[in-house]
Structures are given as structure tokens and as C-alpha cells.
Request: fold
Amino acid sequence: MIELLKDTRIDNILLEKQENNKERSKVGYNIFTLSSYNNHSESFHSDVFASFLDTKGLHGEGRLFLDEFLKYLNNNCKLTIDLNNFQEPIVRREQGRIDILIIDKSKKNAIIFENKINDAPDMDDQLIRYFNWCKKNHLNTVAILYVSLRGLKKAPPVSHDIKDVVRNIAVFSDSESDIVNGWLLKCLNEIKSIETKSLLIQYIELLKFLTFDSMDKKIMDDFYKEVNSKNDLEKINNLKKFAAQIPIYRTDKFQDAIEDFSPFKKSSRYKPNYVLFDCFKEGDNSFKLDVSFSADGSVWIGFWNPPKHKKNGNIDLINKVKQISETIELVPNENKSWFSKTFILDDKNNMEQIDKEVISFVKSLMIELKKTKK
Reply:
């Protein structure tokens, strides 16, 4: 079991997961992610893409988005589309049940944009039916774009006469050939409208955000390849059991180390990972100290005065903390009804080191409180 923890391959997978979470957090705050109501739906993304491609759209950038898109298809998707064949473009949504259809009304050329960003299943002969619909309406289909979030979902098999115009495209795969890098970022550099530029920045961040969610699946694939035998599974389940016991084990060690907890009169185990020191009495006050060990490795210490615990704090608790403030640092909550200190596990320390600091801090706190006892 220990060898699984020390396996560098697992370390690399966990590091990749950590980096993915960091990158995801960078793009996680934007107008589209504040609500998840529509940002995963295909209709939402099709509406956005169609609005960009419309030369008369509200973006006010004329042909910028469409021309850059056609260049992107030629440069990155091995197509040879003549921009002169799309001088009178019309962009349609759901015409012939096609997600996005780009038509040139004079040259009668067409580009089919099939949106699979949310990995929706394919309908029977979907692309073939779209191609035939265009043919029936006297349109020459120059490209069928099968667009998925990371390019992993591939277009279903089609007949030989259609195969040459079908292209699988990734929205974002962190490569020069994806839609974000190959098209949208090129447009971003040329946009004149501040409003359109702001919207595009936000939308690009949404696409990256959604992709990082998808990338977690890839990381899981890597993990699954390394750890998939019965023996591996037993090790993982045992590790989970051990991990669940760590806060309790740390609480045991802490409780054992605090032999003299005066000026408190009582010590109890409120929860398996939670120790209470109670009944430090002065007049009508009865101060209490809570110590809690969390699953994330942190330790929280709280000092309060239950008999006078009020939303607006109490003066006796505040005065008591003031008496020890020169040597002991406790942070008040908003209304000063609690004073606390938190030890956080990070790259600079480990749990064993934190535990020593917690024991030392609590002992010092008790010594200082004992000095103030009336």
C-alpha cells in the first residue's frame, strides 16, 4: 500500500489534476459561468457561434468573424474554401434541422456546422440527411464541421461522396488548430468594439472552463490505466479508510499530549475529531476552548464564553483575550462572539509539524489563561 503512495506515475497524474484545477479556476469567473442554466446546452453555443458568423450581427464587426472562420478552415482543417464564394452570406439556425448553416445566396455554397459541445448522441444518418437536404435545395456543401468540446467525439461514418468534406474540430484542445486558438483569438486581436471584445473574452473563458471539466475525464483515464487491478482497488479502498481515520488519530495524539488542561475543569470528546475543554469559570462566565482536526489537514481552535454568547459578542470574552494578547494571537469573528486560530496545511508544512504547533499553542494558551484567573 505504501508503494502506491510513493509511485511517481500516480504523483504525475495527481499533479496534472492539480494544475488542471488551477487553470480552471483562472477562467472560472465570467458572466457565463455565474449561472449554469444554459452554458452547457448546444442551443446556447449554437446561438453564440451563429451570432459571430452573421456578417450583419449585433457584434458590429461586419465580415471579420466569417472571413477569419473561413481562413481558419483552410489553414487548420485542410479545406480549400474560396472566400469569394461567400460574398453574400446568410447564417441560419435549425434550417433543415441543421445546427448552423452558412449559405452564400448567389454562389449556392453551404457549410454545415454540427454542434456536439455537450456530447449529445448522433441521430441516425444525421450528417447524410443534412447533406441531402442541402442537395435537394440546390446547395453545394463545401464543408461539414463536426464540432465537439475537445475534438474527442468523432463524426459518424458517412458515404464516400460526403467523406471528403467532413472535418472533426475541437473547440478547445490547447492547440493551434482548435476553434479558440485558430479562430476566436485571431478575431479578438482585430475587434474594434469594446463591447464585442469584452463579450468574446468572456465566452472564450467559458469554453476553456467547460473544457477543463472535460479534461478531468482524461486524467481519470490516465489514472485508470495505472490503477485497475483487483489488488490496486483494494489498496485504494484501504487508503480511503486510513485517510478517514487520520483526523481521529491526530485528535487522539493531541488529547494524550494535553495532560494538564487547567484552568479548564473538564475535557471531553465532542466528536471523534473534536476536543472540548470546558468550565473555566470566573464569576458568571464559563470560558470554553474547542479544538477540531479536519479532513483537509487543518486544525481550528476556538475560544468563547457560552453563558454570555451573543450575536453582538460579550465584553468579558473580549477582555479575557486582551489579557493574553501580548503572547497569544486569537482572531475575532465579525461580532467578536468567538476568537479563533486556524492552522492550515500547505506546501510549507505537513500534518505532523502542524500537530506539534497546535499542542505548543494550546499549552501556551492554557498557561496564559491560568495567569489571568481571578
